[in-house]
Amino acid sequence: MNYWYQKSLLRLSDHPQEEVLNLLLLATRLKAEKKKGIEDPLLFGKNIALIFEKSSTRTRCAFEVAAADQGAHCTFLTSQDTHFGSKESLHDSAQVLGRMYDAIGYRGFEQQHLATIAKEAGVPVYNALTDLDHPTQMLADLLTMREHSDKPLNELSFAYLGDARFNMGNSLLLMGALMGIDVRIAAPRQYQPHQQIVAHANTLAQKSGAKLTITEDPLQAVRGVDFVHTDVWLSMGEDEDAWNERIEHLMPYRVTPELMKLAGEQAKFMHCLPSYHDRKTNAGNAFFEQKKLVGVEVAHNVFSSPNSIVFDQAENRMHTIKALLVATLTKEAL
Ligand code: CP
Ligand code: NVA
């Protein structure tokens, strides 16, 4: 029996390391089959509801393309299109959707809302990003790291720099702890993961052998790592007025060519995207006007360097989400 059948993915760290690896194997197989044009659609007749209370390019498109490739159908809903949580409780809406759909993807703010939907819907529910966690991103990041390194997981290392108390910092710490990786998180103290998350990560690390470092020193964090990750300094749903303060606090954690040099020439740059890496966004342009630097959380010349693997990462969102759909919706998938 396939472990993932009918399971939800609320957080990657809810699941065993071995089963995460199985999911990655499936993603690798599906990716190769799609590239060869020999993909076998296994999800005919399945319907998937996507409820997104925040905007998205990659995650939404990854779900929609993955489902279409496999013969399934998606309904995309934003909070404006539904009664979700306003005219109807989450409990009732989740029960209704669970009667019509085979699975639900949810992007929102509160992890608790996601948990409520999963409890009430009675079908697999996927976390398409909350303020706390971004597990489908973790599947893509893991696949991408494995594609770009021959090392076994227990010899792999990555650093994450910047705002580490939001979804990406939390998820990367927990994912690395689950998978037995050498994880270095560098952020000012007030931007480090919450104590509860650190405790959870330490428990996972005891089992997996992961090495966890949480530091205020970005130079110490990046030295010799295989991958340097970052994320935007102001996440969806946060107050735009916080920009100036964020810039002031997080400037030492900006991923620059100097920092990448310190990491070593083997180090690859990763970013979940979207990124303010140039002047073609409002935030990127405002930052340039203020600091005369191109790229906020990452310098443009790092983002566009040969060591940047951000678009491989973005493509892998689709292959890994496809594996998740196939594994959770078909009994014999793995
Ligand atoms: N990385 C990611 O989740 O991107 P979107 O916000 O475009 O879905
Ligand atoms: N931390 C970012 C991630 C986007 C994929 C956000 O929540 O906006």
CA radius of gyration is: 19 Å
Report the principal-axis shape. globular
Helix content: 40-55%
Task: Give the integer mean of the pLDDT values.
Answer: 97
User: What compounds sit in this structure?
Assistant: phosphoric acid mono(formamide)ester, norvaline
State the secondary-structure class: alpha/beta
Report on the biggest sheet: 5 strands, parallel
CATH-assigned fold name of the largest domain:
Rossmann fold
Task: Describe the structure concisely.
The chain has 334 residues and is an alpha/beta fold.
Q: Which properties best describe this structure?
A:
9 strands; Rossmann fold; 44% helix; binds phosphoric acid mono(formamide)ester; five-stranded parallel sheet; 334 residues; alpha/beta; four-stranded parallel sheet; single chain; 2 domains
Account of the 3D structure:
This protein has 334 residues and is of the alpha/beta class. The chain has 2 domains: 132 residues, 3-Layer(aba) Sandwich (Rossmann fold); 160 residues, 3-Layer(aba) Sandwich (Rossmann fold), CATH 3.40.50. Helix content is 44%, strand content 13%. It contains 13 helices and 9 strands. The strands form 2 sheets. It has a 5-stranded parallel beta sheet. Strands 2-1-3-4 form a 4-stranded parallel beta sheet, with helices on both faces. Helix 5 packs across helix 13. The protein is globular. Norvaline binds next to helix 6.
